[in-house]
Amino acid sequence: MTGLFVATALAGFVPSSLERLRLIEAGQQPPFPLSTHVHAVTMGAWLLLSLAQALLVALGRPRWHRALGRAAFVLGPAVVISLTVTTVHFLLAQRHAWTLAQLSDQFAFALFVQGKVTLLFALYLAWALRVRSRAPQLHKRLVLLATFALIAAAFSRIPWLPHFGLEWPYHEDLWNALILAPVLLYDALRSPRWLWVWLLGIVLMWPFMAAYYWLGLGLPPWWQQWVAELFGRTL
């Protein structure tokens, strides 16, 4: 499952990053800010740490797994900080270039899409670290859920994925849920008592998704008025 997360991230972010670099070299886009570089490093480090931890357990090296796992106490907060800083920087840097409707949508995106990623990752990681010694089966599933929370953005960057006739972000959320199919099937056949963990992970996404679909995509007038007041914009 961790390998699938890594493959998804590579399929999504490597081609899109190379295209962005090409546009930067051609002078068609500004260079990446420092926060984006830090974000890329922390996210990549988290994926590599997760993969290494899974391999160490599979190879029967639990002592090395526990020793390396201490890095999560530093890397986990670094991921949360980088997600927050990147989101805030993007929102503030572009707020004057957008129309009010665009700003209202992007603010909803920052709160309910990026906010969902940041909050759920922090929740699952804190829970996983708390139970790592007394409940290893729960621990490993929570670590997977933490990575699952991070991986959604990769799907919008994979052009060859079928959209099933759905527009963004509906097809992205569908693929984000479908990526859990292998581990859901595994637990359904081998360890059904742990299915509640995955169902919880999916259910906790719904309030954030519903809020963004209603506010960010619907843009009710009261939402735009509140955003205008918040950012000092005129209606």
At a glance:
By secondary structure, the chain is an all-alpha fold. The protein has one domain (2-231).
Task: Describe the 3D structure.
- With 235 residues, this protein is mostly helical.
- The chain has one domain.
- Helix content is 77%, strand content 0%.
- The chain has twelve helices and no strands.
- It has helices at residues 2-25, 34-58, 62-69, 72-94, 100-130, 136-150, 152-155, 170-178, 181-190, 195-203, 206-216, 221-231.
- Helix 2 (34-58) runs antiparallel to helix 4.
Number of helices: 12
Shape field:
globular
What is the distance, rounded to the nearest whole angstrom, between the alpha carbons of the first and last residues?
A: 47 Å
Determine the strand fraction and express it as a percent band: under 5%
- Please state the structural category: mainly alpha
Whole-number count of domains? 1
Please provide the count of β strands.
0
Main beta-sheet annotation: none
Helical proportion? Answer: over 70%
Order of secondary-structure elements: HHHHHHHHHHHH
The overall pLDDT, averaged over residues, is 92
Task: Report the C-alpha radius of gyration, rounded.
Answer: 19 Å
Low-confidence stretches: none
